């Protein structure tokens, strides 16, 4: 759609200043009161054009496919909403539904916020391939941001209205404006403003702080002394010279957290102010770190926080300070839950609940800290994707994979569940495994941490219900607190901590937590040797290593990605173990620890299939389906997927479900059978199946 009064507005471009989204949306209401519904048409027409640009940009950013796909789909919704609104305007301009207009504007507001935040965030990301594209992506983002600013110039009705008012044409339009139109538009104006209240509130909360907000909490460097490094060069302890309630001199030990924010940079100051705002709002809670004030250190804005004598929970556990002390474990678990409940009631999602972000004071009171990446639950854009390298061990499963879900309170609860696991087992989650392997196990294979079978039911109930795969099935913070408070001391008597598997790998300490797939697929479990008495075996047999023990050693090497050593061990038992054959085929196919040799991989996989290994059956089927390493043969692929399904392999269910959905491999297209198989795979934790089910809107829980 062409811009109304294009010639007049073009003359204003040199003087018009860029404004924030809510400002120019409010401007359209002002001009709309005079120019009738045509102004709404102009706005939505430009929305449609701009959204097209955003969609095009999203598809060009291939290295963050999932985020941009979500962004582009959200953009399409905004564009379609705008076009639908235009059609309604053309047909019955006076009967347009208020809700449609509000929805179009809100959708466009959110997509703009996502365009800026998501794209910029991934320009700065340092995980996986994103680090390779960082500079190029930053330049592309600058380009789209400039274009968004130009669009704001063009849509800035609030400023250009002054020029329209002076024209005779505008006066004539004003005379023809009917009273009922004024009432209708005023009602529409009010509704849309209300619908955008969350977005404006979010922008306000993230804008640069006023001096009045921060001036009252400022602490000068003269009031601080005895600086000492605490773990990193951005954390210090110091003595704060202040006065007590009776105005008598008082010295208090504090922690100074030096941020990267500089007061001279508005954007950095805004982020700093947001963390201050969180801490100020949460001040009444004893389980949230107390903000004493702010200062400036090394030209960077810094938080002055209360000092917690017992440090962070992760270090406290690693030092063995919780060893079999179940009373203290319960106390700390309850403190974290109370702090999290306070957060959620205050409308804040922490997003980074983990043991390093929980501090313990001198009385072992747990205090949640680090709110730099938190957000208000009623903030504008609810679907932003976060960089979560170190948080992968604690992240809820719905936030992993190619299509992460919106962050909710249930995601914080899952993270709490993993922290609870640390407290109970006294072990770091997924200990000894690199992050990319943890990500693979969790997102691709659906594995999860499990407690010992000897764990008291009162404890295991809390962990199990905090870490349910379906978010809506998880405990609320209130339920966690209720169950912790109900635990009786006698339930914890004589309970010892579960000891994980320990291996020595070339002198390096290696620990693996017990891991199982959610569907309890025995074929993917590490096989352990059966307990034997001394009378059952001879001295010679006692010296030998059983095939099961060799497989266990090999799987441990596999878990730490030492594929060369794992291959050597698997080769020892290839005649006895189909699982070993599958692993060897996998290594030669992907070139893990050996050069790629597809022909050799096929030989191993075919032998594994003969031995009945379910994952080998599915992998061979996939190779036939795609024609990767084998001639493309969809009929053979379907046959193998069917065999994998019979063995309960989730990937087999997913692959066969897709074949039914497409009607390939000799199968008749069958939507119901496809749905049944894919939902079954999704219920067993298969992330690809869950993503497929979401796309088809088959089940909202995925």
Automatic annotation (TrEMBL):
Pfam families: MLKL_N, PK_Tyr_Ser-Thr, Sel1. Residues 221-486 form the Protein kinase domain. It comes from the Eukaryota. PROSITE patterns: PROTEIN_KINASE_DOM. GO terms for molecular function: ATP binding; protein serine/threonine kinase activity. One of its GO terms (biological process) is cell surface receptor signaling pathway. SMART domains: SEL1 (SM00671). PANTHER family: SERINE/THREONINE-PROTEIN KINASE TNNI3K-RELATED. This is 9838_t:CDS:1.
